[in-house]
Amino acid sequence: MDELFGRGRFEALADRLLNASAADQTEVVVIGVDAALTRFANSGIHQNVAERNVQIRVRAIVGKRSGVATTNDVSEPALAQVLERAVEAAKRQPEDPDLPDLPGPLPVELVSSFSQATADCSPEQRAKMVRPICALAVEHGLKASGACSSETTEIGIANSRGVRRHELRSSSSLLTVILDDQGSGYAERTARDVESIDAEALGREAVDKAVRSRGAELIEPGEYPVVLESYAVGEMLMYLAYMGFGALALQEGTSFLRGRLGQQVVDRRISVWDDAHNPLGLPASFDFEGVPKQKVSLIENGVGSGVVYDTKTASREGGQSTGHALPAPDTFGPFPSHLMMGAGDTPRSELAKGIQRGLWVTRFNYVNVVKSDRAVLTGLTKDGTFLIENGEVTRPVKNLRFTQGVLEAWSGLQALGAERRLMEGWGGAVLAPDMRLDRFRFTGVSHV
Amino acid sequence: MRDLTDRALDAASAAGATYADVRIERLQRQVVSVKNGRPDGLLEDESQGFGVRVVVDGAWGFASSSSLDGREIERVARRAVQIARASALVLAEPVDLGETIRSVGSYATPVQIDPFSVAVDEKLAALLEADAAMRAVPGIAVAEGSFECQRVRKVFASTEGSYVEQTLVETGAGIEALAVGEDDAQRRSFPNSFGRQHSTAGYEYFQSMKLAENASRTAEEAVTLLTAKPCPNEVTTVILDSSQAALQVHESCGHPIELDRVFGTEASYAGTSFLTLDKRGAYRYGSEQVTIAADATIPGALGTFGFDDEGVPAQRTIIVDRGVFKNYLTSRETAARLGESSNGTMRADGWSRIPLIRMTNINLEPGDWSLDDLIADTDRGVFLQTNRSWSIDDVRLNFQFGTEIGWEIRNGKLGAMLKNATYTGITPRFWGACDAVGKEWTVWGTPNCGKGQPSQSMHVGHGAAPIRVRGVQIGVMR
Do A94 and B422 count as a contact with CB atoms less than 8 A apart? Predict the structure, then answer.
């Protein structure tokens, strides 16, 4: 990969803009992206794309007024203009008496966030990863679809209070949906290093599911004990973060953790945290304000234990940012993008044991929030839903719609899986285990 | 721009492309946000770049860059060719684009007042006036509002001789009030939820929105919802307001008529479609009351443009004719598989993305009922307004929606307010049970339609009026 913007150029740009700024405080953020994605369907590559972009974001604070301007034109006149536009934007704003100062420099623990192999991943290499998946599908009379991506992100952050950060981050992902008219299967791998992804193993996992899901029968909606594979658990975890693991949602009263911090909210075997330093995830050292990322406990042994903060939400409570800011101006608030749930001790092969009649769910599709402050979600099962009878997975069933409170469901935990999968998340990744729950509410079926 | 587009096309052809196109785009966007009487962000956003799309050895390749200079555009064109050659290593079927498209022309959104020419102070003042009116209602915890405008200038050129220039302008705004009680939180929005209502228009659209005039009612409804009855769990008659009817059209008609989904090329993300090829022309999608058209030519609608991102002129296509499914949204490649011509729906979310089949303005044609008459004609049911939640399966059959607010209907009159309203159904059964369509027709803008990998967010429109549907399951959350 050719250099995107580069540390040296970033340093020079930061020096120039910060020195030239007429604002009281100034922040310069560089976000560079070199990304490629190979997409396949009907067992062939049908879309294959690459993107290269460098965005410069300038936040100017004048008194208690703040404005942000961006450009991806890195010519000298455009860079001068972006600073002027940010200062002008700030001056046009009314005062915000609660506007905090930009954060100052804090010691940061640098993580290993970059993979040269991912940065160098070629379209030919991605085609080589896709090919065995397609071949395996065709061999079984199925069609393969999916996406194989590799991405390098360059983040540089500097401000007039002395913050100066620069980091390259890598991510790669391979996912597939294998299907025919009778059934479908799914598998996904996400990693920092693209070479750690075993495409053939992924293909075998999805093909096995697709073959086993052929001839699905209709089953009545209702409450069933379930085994949720980590794909489904990870999706629920992301939506929990969206609904209430950020400080803004808690402060405004829409988080399901409102009034419940320190209380038991789910089974005591469940712990959830955000940790951008953990090498099992997609590491990052700092957030979009340059604040070092902290590990934050969100649910500890089933007890609501915390939320994540940026500078603005932390200042409201007289505290410190936990390093979870999104790029300014941000109306959503801080967000945990390196979510992890602790594993249990039950192997995947034993999770169905103990269920007389229940359902095995591979993953969810089209999940959305029904009621944020009660953590109620709806969505559908997909790519491998099976009946469990007398502790054994017996036959495939048609996809079902669920409408379910996450906390209520996780309070009925019966077993937590020993294996975890890393999946693509919003702005990062999520690491989650499988789980067995005593009940899950299915409210409809996908069938004419 | 001609020089740059020529260099891209020449470089791609010299490297072996049998077809190539290039799009150069410049985006200017402004977002003004307020919350609880304070500024909540002012963003002046600019982005530029280009993307080159090629066919080599029967396979697609695409590469893009933000660096707009001649040498870079040639490098990126050659990279697109390299990528296409890699695609050819695992090819299912060679690309056939059908008939040649040679469009030359230009289009610009009709704008009375350039939204970027108006001072931020004026936009802030309007938002803060609405904000103050909402906060004047006791019980409101958070009042917020936002204004957004954008201008996209784009040039499209192809090796077939197309050269199209377009300038598309959008303006939108919205307000929201959040009421928080002891054990509940309820939100109301105006004119639509999830941020804003959008139009392809200038500042005059923002001036017409009457945010401040509707602020008190919006806030009062949020507060009243805290103590409202929960939506009951029953099967009943449902009347949807036009904004929720628009989203119903979007999810249960707009997506399944995308022909790429039907051919399986979105299977790994967006899904496929229950509207398979065998259903075209005779399948009973809905009742006689239901006629749906795709129309990219409606003035002011969010999915209106002059040419799509393959250079095909904007057009109108009947999708559902008095309940019978007739047509898909198509691209050059998918239409060619049916021996037809594209109906002009390929659009990309900016210079760094390939065009995909996207909704334009998918409109439920109006009927002749007023909303008042619809309610008066209903003995028992519910009236549901403003979307809060949406979900639908991968073939677009089983859906479930939630709305911000609802009311009981008893003996032809609106009764008690309902909160946490949801309804669910199966697409053809739902539309088959639609026995009335209203005449108060509004074009709603949906600025967040997701599709594709890497993800793309498209701006689409939906003309819709209130609808009445019999025998719908409501109250799923209870």
Answer: no
Mean pLDDT (chain B) is 97
CA of residue B307 relative to chain centroid, distance: 17
Asked if omega into A334 is within 30° of 0 (cis), the reply is no
Q: Hey, what are B95's tokens?
A: 């690309």
Q: Which domains does chain B have, with CATH numbers?
A: 2-225 (3.30.2290.10), 229-474 (no CATH)
Judge whether A61 lies within some domain: yes
Picking from B122, B124, B453 by the largest number of A CB atoms within 10 A of its own CB, the best residue to mutate is B453
| Closest by Cα among B312, B375, B377 to B346 | B312
Which of B48, B53, B65, B66 is the best residue to mutate to test the A interface, defined by the most A CB atoms within 10 Å of its own CB?
B66
Amino acid in the structure at residue A9: R
Kindly indicate the confidence band of residue A448, based on its pLDDT and cuts at 50, 70 and 90. low
Tell which of A209, A231, A249 closes a domain. A209
Residue A2 lies in a domain: no
The answer to whether residues A187 and A203 touch, using CB atoms and an 8 Å cutoff, is yes
Res A374 pLDDT > 70: yes
Q: Which domain holds residue A371?
A: 216-445
Which percentage of chain A shows pLDDT scores above 70? 100
Amino acid symbol at B404: E
**A200 and A283 both lie in a single domain:** no
Q: Where are the alpha helices (DSSP H) in B140-226?
A: 203-207, 211-225
Instruction: Decide: helix, strand or coil at residue B438.
Output: strand
Tell me which chain B residues have a C-beta less than 8 angstroms from the C-beta of A401.
391, 393, 398, 400, 424
Beta bridge partners of residue A303, listed in sequence order:
A264, A300
- Which of these three, A209, A234, A269, is where a domain ends? A209
Report the half-sphere exposure of A89 (CA within 13 A, side-chain side).
31
The reply to whether A123 touches chain B by the CB within 8 Å rule is yes
Yes or no, beta carbons of A123 and B68 under 8 Å apart: no
In the predicted model, residues of chain B with pLDDT beneath 50 are none
Residue B121 — left, alpha, or beta (φ > 0 → left; ψ -120 to 50 → alpha)? Answer: alpha
Strand partners, A33: A53, A153
